[in-house]
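@channel sequence for tomorrow's demo:
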Amino acid sequence: MASPLTAAGAYANIARLTADATRGVFSSSAGAAPPTGNSFGAALKEALGTVEQLGHKSDVASRDMVNGKSNMVDVVTAVAETQVAIDAVVAVRDKVIAAYDEIMKMPI
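structure tokens (generated this afternoon):
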């Protein structure tokens, strides 16, 4: 099972992504240069890289279990951490899609 710290870290990353996205949207004015801080795309790329690393970690733990080098608790923990991270990314994706749908419904 995923530890509370892992879940809290994933939610903190999502909150940081959201804060970066809203700061970029509301701080720029028409004709102004884009903000020089982290963009939403860069933050999203970083989050996906983290999910990829967690997936690799769970794969390694699974292989080690098959080879007798690891115990079941390590495997379950690694898989649960990956699942929490993937759930967080899917939640962000769903919010982005919902926001896009709302923008597309706006009259011009």
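heads up for whoever presents: The chain has one domain: 4-21+39-105.
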